[in-house]
From TrEMBL:
EC number: 3.4.13.9
Reactions accelerated catalytically: Xaa-L-Pro dipeptide + H2O = an L-alpha-amino acid + L-proline
UniProt entry keywords in alphabetical sequence: Dipeptidase, Hydrolase, Manganese, Metal-binding, Metalloprotease, Protease
Gene this chain is encoded by: pepQ
Domain Peptidase M24, first and last residues per copy: 166-424
The protein's name: Xaa-Pro dipeptidase
Amino acid sequence: MSTTLFNLQHDHIAHLQRAYSDILTDHGFDSLAIYSGHTSVHFADDHAPPFQTYGHFMHWVGLADVQHSWLIIQPEKRPQLYLYAPADFWHLPTHLPEEPWVAAFDIHLCSEKISPPLTGKAAVIGDIERLPTSTQKALKAEHHPERIVYALDELRMFKTPYEIACLREANRLAIAGHQASQAAFIGASGELDIQLAYLAASRQRESNVPYQNIIGLNEHAGVLHYQHYDLTAPKQRYSLLVDAGRRFRGYCADITRTYAGPDAPATFGELVTAMHGLKDELVKGVAPGVNFLILHEQMHHHLGEILVANDLFKGTAEQAVAEGVTRAFCPHGLGHSLGLQVHDVAGLRHPDGTPAPAPEHHPALRLTRTLRPGMVVTIEPGLYFINMLLAPLRNTDLPINWQLVDQLVPCGGIRIEDNVAVTESGFANLTP
């Protein structure tokens, strides 16, 4: 790992120490214990699902699979890391990498699961409810105080240069997977084989992906969170949608690409090109002081223009938006905050922690903030042919070209997604 990244991580940890000290002091706490969390076995089984470390714990150590461990933060003192590392020949115990950042912590390797030592007025955050009752009672602290959690969520909304570097590298690694997926699609592979090509090229196992990859061929591209992988390739190849990510030191890439297949109507390929252009136009609109809701509304206006230009709607773009036509073709929000979690924290809250819910007409929008330098967001316009959403419009006299829509339904839909950092002067697109 480069010296530059280690220096950035050193500055990142120093930034967290200052910020946490201020937050704890402002709220009258002497110490804070952060629980990493732990996985649990499936019901009536002895196997557990993949695990992800609690985000506020990961914010400090950058390790996504630490379990049964504690981090104790006190103002003006070195952070104390109690790392659960039992002697075990069944599994490889957790261990810290030999990297300079480890020296910023007082490390305690624990062979047993512990209750963290707390002093003064203490708070504890994390998945405390899943700890044994006896451990919960032993924690002489305020459990999950909202005012502390909201302040830490807000802190995570603004990424340090180290975090931006990690997100950029996660994107670079994910792009290799996307390129391999496209090649597999050209080679007439099925969904499972495309997924395996993605994993191999992005150098990760399926249990390590930040979210379950969406690999949708044909009509499956119109299922927004399509969750299966067909084993065989379809006889006709209309489209491929790949929504797939990668972690780097805990930080997530979240990238989507859509490709027209050899059997797709010519209009579908033209729509894919148009949606790339729309994504690029919206990325250029990312800047400090811009309300994300305004960008979302711009997406719908431009989507209306695309529907009109491609003869899908024979009215005006303004009519398509006003009558809810664009919402039927794109039911999700423009994007969300991105970081240690794919849908990162604080996107639907004001800086003071009060709710900032999505508007009534756009209930799926996950980010309602005014953009500020240091935020990282996804920009992911979509255009889908989903019968369930389009069916109510068939009973109206809206000038929709249903003949063309029906030709495009087998293609499923289109989504193009980049990861974008807000800078002091505008934006930096982290997706190569």
